[in-house]
Amino acid sequence: MNAQERKDYILDILKKNHSVKILKLSKELRVTRETIRKDLYELEKEGLIKKIHGGAVLDSSNQETDYERRKSEYQEEKTAIAKQAAKHIEEGDTIYLDYGTTTLALAREIMNLKNITVITNTIPIVNLLLHSEDINLLIPGGMLRKNEDSLYGPFASNNLQNIFVDIGFFGCGGIDDEVGITNHHMGETMISKEMIHHSQTSIILADHSKFGSIAFNRTATFDEIDIIITDEDLSSETYEKISQKGVEIYCTEDE
């Protein structure tokens, strides 16, 4: 088990039990206590946990919310963004659907499209499109991130090296007018980075709550993406700042 797998395991245990002990983790994972301390230090640096004497607890003030919980947040906005995004897809297109709950909303919108090839490593999207007769589904595979139902890692990256798409639709954890596009999980971010460079058109799907936030890993700078689709609550000041960087912004109020 490598460092990222250990950290995912630790987070899974924390979400179930709310606290972990270094000694117990050391025995379960068959590594030294010093290795566990290093993993906990890195997780704390990412803002996901707080170290305590002999172990750690979740940092409830700054942790990434669970996938199921995020699906219920800003549902109307995500649906409107998805409807706007679907307008960019034409019959015969090959598209990539990235990690996230807004890309899941887009998957719902395209279920009845014809002659579309969808590449995704998000299991909820796979389950949704599995029986859509006119959608060709390609799953690169990889290591399972259980709390997000996603696949990532070197196996996924290797399988994507020679795959190129017409449009890539990407979620995010934050959009800052200086830093760019960021996300939470390093392994998922590496896959997203790769597919942004393998997309003829790269589109970010993000509700207004993502703007002004910075997550742990940078996914892309503004010159690496083409379009951002968001909802009507985006401030005019933010709209202007990002538009000046050469990125097209579509707001759902423009429908």
Automatic annotation (TrEMBL):
Residues 3-58 form the HTH deoR-type domain. SUPFAM superfamilies: NagB/RpiA/CoA transferase-like, Winged helix' DNA-binding domain. InterPro entries: Carb_Metab_HTH_regulators, DeoR-like_C, DeoR_HTH, NagB/RpiA_transferase-like, Tscrpt_reg_HTH_DeoR_CS, WH-like_DNA-bd_sf, WH_DNA-bd_sf. The lineage of its organism: Bacteria, Bacillati, Bacillota, Bacilli, Lactobacillales. The keyword Transcription applies. It comes from the Bacteria. It comes from Candidatus Enterococcus palustris. Keywords: DNA-binding, Transcription, Transcription regulation. This is HTH deoR-type domain-containing protein. One of its GO terms (molecular function) is DNA-binding transcription factor activity.
